[in-house]
Structure formats: C-alpha cells, structure tokens
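ESCALATION

Customer reports they have been waiting on this structure for their group meeting. Please prioritize. Original submission:
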Amino acid sequence: MQRVATLERKNLRMLPRAIRFTALICLSSAIANCEVDQANAFDWDYAPDIVDLSYEAALGTDADFKAWQADALKTFRTKYAAIPLAPADSYKIEDWQTGSGYRFRKIDFKYGSGILFGHSLGGVLAVPDKVDPNKPILIVFHGHEYHDPGAPPVGLFTEDTWASKLVQGGYVVWAPSTAFHEWIEPLTKEFDYTPVWAKYASQSLDTVASEFPEHKGFKTVGLALGGLVATVLTGMDERIDGGVYAESFFSLDWSRREYRVWNHPMCWDIKNIYSYSTLFGLIAPKPTQIQMGRADPFFPRLTGWAPDPSFSGFKRGMYSDEIYGGYLMLKNIWSRENGDIDFVTHPGGHDALDTDAALRFLGTASKGL
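Update from on-call: job pushed to the front of the queue and completed.
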C-alpha cells in the first residue's frame, strides 16, 4: 500500500497545481480508509468498556462518589474475576536464610494445569527477628529494576534494599513473583498484565496468612510497575487496606503516546481507563501514600528525555496538570471520605523508594487496623 501511494504521488507531479492539490486530498482519504497497518502510528488502543471519574465523582457529594465507585468496582471486579488463572496445586517452602535483623525463605508454587503449568513461580517471605502481630503483613512488588522477572525475588532482600528496610522496620514482608510477561501474554489482550499479576499475588495470600494467623490485615508497597500492580490489588482484593505506591502515578495517556521500553511490552497499560486517577478512585478512602522521585523521567518537567539503550525517550515531559492536578482531585475525594492520602517527593529516580517516608506513613496508617 505504501509503495502504491508513492508511485501515485510521483504521477501527481505531472498534473496542474490546483488539480494536484485536489487529487492529493482524495488519495489521502483513500489511503486512510484502506486496511493498512496502523502500528507505525499507534500500537495500542482503548477498550470499549472505558471507566473514568465522572464530574459528580470528582467534584460532587460523598454520595455521588460512592455511587460511582460502586459501579466502577463492579465493572473492574467482574472482569478481574473472569481472568482464567488457576491457583497453585501445592507449594514448597525452603529453609530459612538470614539477613540483617531478619530471616527469609523462598516459597515455590506448583501448577498442575492452566497457563502457568510447568513454570516456576513463588515469592519470598521475610520476617523480622521480633514480630509484632499488631502490624499488617506487607505485600511488596518490584518493577523492572529487578532483572529476574517471574523468579522469587530473593535479590530484593540483600543488604540496604528498600524491601529489606521494610522488614528491618518490623514488618513481615511477602514479595510474590511479578513482571513475568511471556507466560501470560495470551491473557493480556483481554485482561492486561497488571490485573493478571495482581490476581496471582492475591491467590498467594492464603498461604502467607496461614503462616501468621495472628496478624491483622495486609497493606501493600510497590515500586514503578510494582506500584501499579499494588494499586490494582488494593482495589480488587478487599483484604488489602491501602499502602505505598511509588513511581507509578503518572499520566497513562501521555505514556501511550510518548514513549516505549525496548525490552518489554506496554505492560503498564490498562486499556479501559484513560488515567490512573480512576484506578486510585477504586481504592478510596484506604490509607494511600503516593511517591515520586524528582530524578524520575516521569517527574513533571518542561523538556523531553533523550533515548537510551533501555527506552525510547520522549518529546515532552509530563506537565503539572497531569500529576498534581490528578493528585488534587484524589485529595478532594479522600477528604470527603475522611481518608488519609499523602504525596511525597524525594531526590531519587524511577527505581527509588523513600523507605523512611513509607515507614512513617505505614506506622500512622496501621494504627487504625
């Protein structure tokens, strides 16, 4: 089709200028209406069942918001329940290993059927030397900064990592496998990646809870892509009572149009929303801390970002309405619902989490459990 268009345009140069202009319009229209590959323009699309925060939900009364949230949760949870992800048939727990002020062990899940059959998935359960059952269990999710997707993320619990600091802060921490792409790719055309990862994590919680039956509730902490998985899990699983969501509150539509990561698909996309503000609307008024690093390429800036070996770069950065405007809308919702929401910036980048701020917030939010 492109070669035909090129030949036709060459022939058009032989026509008088006025006729050539009219012919070009006709030719452009014909090409637009043909079945051509649109991947060179957009390699994504919206889902037909779009959910967005309504005027009444964002700016109306408490009753308006609750009515919107009930409908939105029904839509999301119906689709989430339909994800054909079979739970594990059995699991194996390895012996304890020790860290600084804590110990951890790897849990491997075995699947006898379904899309995960034959794959090794699991997680890491880390426990402080002194366990406080009044604190919730933290479910933590890494992003692509962790380079062994799908495997139990033992590397999150080396010295001085953000996850190890959470355990040293006195929390039992469960880190399920995440960011595995290829195995679940057949599901993602209908369900997207983050809901599938969230459902996998949700299915693992019964195993973790059985190890600590005296504990009160769950909260979640996620970084980058893991922050999105954590947000989805918080909305879909009523056992999760809020958490910390780092480097994952950015403009979804901007990311669709402006950049790509070279070595993995658009796994951050959720095709039936325009904005992550809608996703956060599902979890109100659960205690919520949003974190954003000032060195993160996604931090609001006036300039673009140059390409590098890992991603495409982008022509413009996000502007303030896309970040602070979205947060102010959420803050309005949380205030009407008497909820606790916080926005924290720190000097780090897309792979950094302010653990001190997270621990302060979790300590305050956990008092209500």
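Sent to customer with the following note: The beta strands are 90-93, 97-98, 102-110, 121-128, 137-141, 173-176, 218-223, 240-246, 288-293, 341-346.
Escalation resolved.
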